[in-house]
Amino acid sequence: MANRNNKKDSSISHVANLLTSILLCYPEIATINLDPKSRIVKFTFYLSNSVSDETLKIFEQHLQQSLNTYYYLEKRDAEVYSLVFHVLDFFTTIEFQRDVQSLSQKEIALITVLLKEEFGSQLVTEEDDELMIDDLTVDKELIGYMLENAKKTSSNTKLIALRDEGKVLVFNK
Question: I need a surface site. Which of 70, 75, 142, 162 has the fewest CB within 10 A?
Fold first, then answer.
């Protein structure tokens, strides 16, 4: 019985490390919500002001075209893909949902680059000046490896990772 609990704790720890690494490497991502039962991961991004529906619609079309091209080139099929915008008085949230099984580190990088290109300084980021460029390259390779391992885990614990005053916090639901 203890062996099973250690295995479960270990898989939760590996997934928590993955979420932490993603937030450290991609300061554009505000929160990550992972539901292992549905095998869905949700990335949330913040824009510093309200954005018009027309701008969001144009971005959604551009993102869809880019991702479809990426999926074609990588010979992947996305089982779950959704993009939801919440325009509030003083800021906008963008929620991107994907199935864990077909998600890759390259896709996360593509999404963040497209967001930076489209929204520039409106995209809220939390940069860490202490991270070295070489470290980021290694971390991105590590994220790919950790993501592949997370696809094989069988934890039922929902995890949420978020930023708070320069720190990354991971909670289980």
Answer: 75
Task: Dig out the tokens for 158 from the structure.
Answer: 């929902």
Residue 64: count other Cβ atoms within 10 Å of its Cβ: 12
DSSP E strands in the chain: the ranges are: 31-35, 40-47, 81-87, 92-99, 159-164, 167-172
Give the single-character DSSP code of 145: H
Could you say which DSSP state residue 15 is in?
Answer: H
> Tens digit of pLDDT for each residue in 83-119?
999 999 899 999 999 998 889 999 999 999 999 999 9
For residue 126, the one-letter residue type is E
Both structure tokens of 118: 């489209």
Strands 81-87 and 92-99 turn out to be: antiparallel
pTM (two decimals): 0.85
Where are the domains positioned within the chain? Answer: 2-172
